[in-house]
Input
Amino acid sequence: MILELHHISKSYPKPGSGSIHVLKNISFSLDRGDTMAITGQSGSGKTTLLSLIAGLDRPDFGQILLEGKDISAMKENELSQYRALKTSIIFQQFHLMPHLTAEENISLPLEILKQDRIKELTDEMLEKTGLKDRRHHLPGALSGGECQRVAIARALIIKPALLLADEPTGNLDMETGEKIAKLLFDLVEKENKTLILVTHNPFLAGQCREIRRLEKGVLV
Output
């Protein structure tokens, strides 16, 4: 298994006293190439769950294993390596560096990690996402769909074991969103990536092999 969650629970302090139980006893597993959509109302805990899997926060109880390693027990320096090398997140808001070109945004994770073959890998992702002719454009000169293509290329360039996406088409019109969804799932299938997708969009969720729903912190 690529990813295993065992009895994950998470709560946050409530203003005044007590706590808010956001996630309750979440368990599931995914193998290489599996795709899962997590749906649910706003505030149901979807983004919190994604943050825990990404190593951005820690559960109160339970284990999260990626390739057999318990990330919930990792020290901070190990977590930093995990976030840099093992997982990538595609956000709704793109989160591109405005002063960097499309090409520079895509290669940024490799530059930070001082990886080899930066130009070769960047050219490969520009080709796969149809951005070769836009490589020298700043984000401000790109459409929303093109910005999300850059974000997808940036996420995949490190060849992560696990790809996470938080409402990746939420900022796009329907037609552009469907094109981005097709690109994302085509790349996930071709590269045999494991994907967890958080979405309110039934069309997007329907592209995944498995759909789960969070209701009041419980995965059903």
Observations:
- The mean pLDDT is 92.
